[in-house]
């Protein structure tokens, strides 16, 4: 593959190879070893039209650890503010001979559109409510490290599934790797089309979490909701917030995940988020760097092959 635009459509062996490579990078990162020759002379531009802490920083670290030249384009101070279109911005960056373009955008499909217009390998860092492929890869790597395999696991993805690109990418990846996937949330926050993907739909945490191996909580994305339809945080927490009582429905060794940023006291209780045994949220962030190193490595290698 020339780009990484979505998990949907990726072959399971391609996903498994990316995870294996990321596992190696995770080991090297823990040993403090870098591979600064791998992307020497390559240019990576981070182009984020939406806010980010984890994804942007970890792509920057990943690129630096592999020796790439990195430019973090600040969209808020760019000529986008003067009315320059997405495609004109892309053509400008293309003329600078960018090799890798990491794009986050509020519109679903924006990275795919850019991929048709630029020579660079485009990596989707989250587009609207569509996909966030590197998040699903880092989640899969975290699960695999904790549980040994993805096959046969029951994974409950809980909360605001409707607005979640993380949920969509995870559903595609986990089903491709033969996990059982449940989505859990109020009917207003579960889109009807997810049931057709082959997931179980639950509207209560008791049945949704029953015997789950993995409990993945999602952020309530109030900024994507029209006012009037925004649930109250207190009420949401009462029915869908993960606390010790609800986590007890899952397997005793179930792990707790959250892609971040978290709203403590809304979708997850602080005591659970900070539980040193059950919560793997810190490990997810750590695996984010390793997964992004693997993705940059593979796409740069594919580019070399094609030139
Ligand atoms: N999980 C995630 O995408 O976090 P950021 O928005 O901070 O990048």
From TrEMBL:
Superkingdom of the organism of origin: Bacteria
Keyword Metal-binding: no
Swiss-Prot/TrEMBL catalytic activity: carbamoyl phosphate + L-aspartate = N-carbamoyl-L-aspartate + phosphate + H(+)
Domain Aspartate/ornithine carbamoyltransferase carbamoyl-P binding intervals: 2-144
Keywords: Pyrimidine biosynthesis, Transferase
Class of the enzyme per the UniProt entry, highest EC level: transferase
InterPro entries noted in UniProt: Asp/Orn_carbamoyltranf_P-bd, Asp/Orn_carbamoylTrfase, Asp/Orn_carbamoylTrfase_sf, Asp_carbamoyltransf, Asp_carbamoyltransf_Asp/Orn-bd
Amino acids binding carbamoyl phosphate: 54-55, 104, 132, 135, 260-261
Task performed by this protein: Catalyzes the condensation of carbamoyl phosphate and aspartate to form carbamoyl aspartate and inorganic phosphate, the committed step in the de novo pyrimidine nucleotide biosynthesis pathway. Reversibly catalyzes the transfer of the carbamoyl group from carbamoyl phosphate (CP) to the N(epsilon) atom of ornithine (ORN) to produce L-citrulline.
Assembly description: Heterododecamer (2C3:3R2) of six catalytic PyrB chains organized as two trimers (C3), and six regulatory PyrI chains organized as three dimers (R2).
Family: Belongs to the aspartate/ornithine carbamoyltransferase superfamily. ATCase family.
Protein name as it appears in the record: Aspartate carbamoyltransferase
Lineage of producing organism: Bacteria, Pseudomonadati, Pseudomonadota, Alphaproteobacteria, Acetobacterales
